[in-house]
Amino acid sequence: MVRDYSTVLQEMIVTPEVALEELEPGMSIFIGTGAAEPRTMVRALLASAAPNIQDLELIQIISFGDAVNSKNFSADRFRLKTFFSGWVADDAISKGHVDYIPSRYSEIPNLFASDHIDVHVAMIQVSPPNDSGYCSLGTAVDVARQAIDKATVVIGEINENVPRTFGDTFVPISDFDCFVLSDDPPFTFDRWPVDKVFDVVAQKVASVIEDGSCISYSIGPLFEALPRHLRGKKNLGIHSPFVTDALMDLINSGAVTNRNKKIYQGKSLTSYALGSKELLKWLDGNPMVEFQAINRVFSPMQIGKNPSVVTIVHARKVDLKGRFALHTGKGNVATGPSEVIDFFNGAEISRGGCTIFALSSRNLEGKPNVTCSVDNYPNQFSLHESVDLVITEYGVASLKGRTVRERAQALIEIAHPDDRAALVAAARESHILYPDQIFLEDSAHSYPSEIHRTRTFKGGKVIHFRPIRPSDEEGMRKLFYRFSDTAVYYRYFTPVTAMPHARMQEYVNIDYTDTMAIVGVTGRADKERLVAEGRFVKGRKEGYAEVAFVVDEAFQNMGIATGMLDMLTDIAKKRGLKGFTADVLSSNRQMLAVFKKLGESCKVTMSDGVYEIAVTF
């Protein structure tokens, strides 16, 4: 016999005031989280003057709205405890109106299960039940099921506006003691405006995300800008605390298939929805988005089962040691230390995982976001020593495996050009950089970031070419010491046995005008290996430049030198040069062959055992 759940439901529906009669002084009340806050019940609770509404403890994982409004609180009636320190909760916490519970999100369910957190009453927003008598938790699963299991009184707030989402979201009406009806609109978030700076930051973030990566998503201008730069990727996966309008766009672009994931394969995994009415409509009945509890979504071990996890964090500040301060208040919707750390650890565990901190070089007030120290900023991130990449609109700084000095050099290069001189001076004074560290102020503004090229050579070897940077000093030094004595002699025309800092820093600090140099690197941005370098220097002959290049001996005979010569030629032509000159030792047959590929434009003469080469464009 098919049960008529509509009749059962009607018998369970009460007014909010009647539902509140189940409360007793001293009870702990779990309130649905974030966009799933049961607004009708919360409003009734805060407005009630009933004698049983005294000394109540309210518990919420993420607080966005009515429950965190300190105007409604009095010490003898309510006290809110939250695990979230961002958005409007930040102000209430700092004023002492709300208690903050620091915790890794993956551990929160254990706090409930182990009775560290008491729950006597659960107030949960749900969708209307389906024909089988199951309601959906809608836009937030987090620990709702644990709260329902633990509570002695479970009050469901049925709202027609709640989407029926899939995953661990369905709860039978038999799990509830009563229901109230609501037509309150759920919390929604307008889409973030994207300015030109964050669009460039997003483009650079997307440039280091490879096909098949599994990414986590958040909310804000960076994440709003990302989809249009990621839509050309293939087989991306989603394991994310939040699903947003921007993430919806990315999924709809076809770039997301989730086929490379090892858990919840084929589905985008999340625990919360934050966004517009359009997002909620898209989620309604969408089986390709899987909502699960936070002990599944935030678990580093679960995250790490997926290969190539990329955790992206929008930071507020970074200092020269690679330490970070995260956003606070309304600048922090979802990126406090507690929210970030689990996904950060998951990326560390993941095979091929990567952690990215991204920010604009300056804030909206025009003040530097790359600073000497973040000691005076709140919301600091504690695992700075394990960060892989830092990205601004001026480039990508790899921190992995680098010394503090090398980190500082790389971070200065992605600071705003007008801030770099002061950062270098402060770093010298603090003994972070060498006292004799060279800094060419004009070069900070003239770095030709538009010059870059990726090519595949013999054997499928992929090389990325870009202009040389001061932070390439260590990479160039390692390249030098990999050369044989013969290779060194071919390049410098004299035996050179050492390349100390004083000499190498002069080599990598160039003006990009009279001297132009490019390097070839292999590997991901966080694992770059410098394998080739080519340059031209304007010579004594007007309109001509002297050209030279070197290639790691393990990468020779692949066409890399020819590729660099082609690239340097293109650059020189655009700068109005007439041609190149070069000196090649007569025994250096390989280099001579590179130039002879230019055909009739290359003239070769011999003088004292040296080929004098002149190339006319």
TrEMBL record:
The keyword Oxidoreductase is assigned to this record: no
InterPro entries per the UniProt record, alphabetical: AcetylCoA_hyd_C, AcetylCoA_hyd_C_sf, ActCoA_hydro, ActCoA_hydro_N, Acyl_CoA_acyltransferase, GNAT_dom, NagB/RpiA_transferase-like
Gene3D superfamilies: 3.40.630.30, 4-hydroxybutyrate coenzyme like domains, Acetyl-CoA hydrolase/transferase C-terminal domain, Glutaconate Coenzyme A-transferase
GO molecular function: acetate CoA-transferase activity; acyltransferase activity, transferring groups other than amino-acyl groups; hydrolase activity
Any single Pfam family the record assigns to this protein: Acetyltransf_1
Gene Ontology biological-process annotations: acetate metabolic process
N-acetyltransferase domain span: 463-617
Signal sequence annotation: none
UniProt keyword terms in alphabetical order: Hydrolase, Transferase
Family: Belongs to the acetyl-CoA hydrolase/transferase family.
Protein name: Acetyl-coa hydrolase/transferase
Lineage: Bacteria, Pseudomonadati, Thermodesulfobacteriota, Desulfobacteria, Desulfobacterales
